[in-house]
Amino acid sequence: MSKLTNLQAYFLSILALIIFAPAPSVGVLLARMNLDANFGILAWILAKIWLFVLPFIWLVFVEKNRLTVLKFKKDGVIFGIILGIIMLIAIWGSFYLFGKNTVDIPAMKNKLSAFHLTDISIYLACFLYWTVINSFLEEFIFRYFFFEKLEVIFQAQITAAILAAIIFTIHHSIALGLYVDWKINILASSAVFLAGFLWNLLFIKYRSLYPGYIAHIFADIGVFGLGFYLLFIA
Fold first, then answer.
1. CA–CA distance, 78 with 81 (Å, rounded to integer)
2. Apex CA 44: angle with CA 39 and CA 46, to 5°?
């Protein structure tokens, strides 16, 4: 936003949040309605376009942003790896301690079958997409796009980090509510918020997407690895 006045940046940031922040939650809610499998899949695809494609267009054509944030920087990468490994261990450890006797596996399989995720090849393809591609897109949107808008509005990095983490958490909580008990949902949502907040702090420190992206990959490996275990092994 370097070419914009402070007032222009402020109002554009508010407008961008109004337009784009509801996207992930609306997409999950429509998919949860699941009037039929095709509707759910279409709603998910449209929400992804709304969340991931349109903000790129906004940045390039409205804000005239050159997207230099996409350039790879090695700063913080090692820290991202360490944090990611800790998160992966925490995900599996939390499941072992709190969740292994509360997940209704048959019900979970039944719900996921509507999206063909009980087919191992489709599950593995989704596993690859979420860990490599979706995690990067989420880091760009939540750790850069939303965080930057909130930082412009509130002029406070920690406030922006907290609010961006809340936006990141809401749609995860809605999605989790479809598959797990509310107590597990609270625990998992708290973990999602903490992860989002920590990744925001990484972005604040290094002004790079890549430390958070690497940590995010490890976290998604933990989640989808756990899903693989529940669906195909347990």
1. 5
2. 95
CA distance 171 to 166: 9
CA–CA separation, 115 and 24 (whole Å): 18
Q: How far apart are the first and last CA of the chain?
A: 50
Q: pTM of this prediction?
A: 0.90
Count of other CB atoms within 10 angstroms of residue 220:
22
Low-confidence ranges of the chain (pLDDT < 50): none
**Closest alpha carbon to 142 in 43, 30, 17:** 17
Going from N- to C-terminal start, the domains of the chain cover 69-233
Show Cβ contacts of residue 73 under 8 Å, excluding neighbours closer than 6 positions. Answer: 206, 207, 208, 210
Angle at the Cα of 200 (from 144 to 81), degrees rounded to 5? 105
Cβ(191)–Cβ(95) below 8 Å: no
Average pLDDT over the chain reads 90
Question: Judging by beta carbons within 10 Å of its beta carbon (0-12, 13-18, 19+), is residue 41 exposed, middle or buried?
Answer: middle
Residue type, 58: W
Structure-token match 């479809």, residue found: 178
pLDDT digits (tens, 9 = 90+) for 45-55: 888 899 999 99
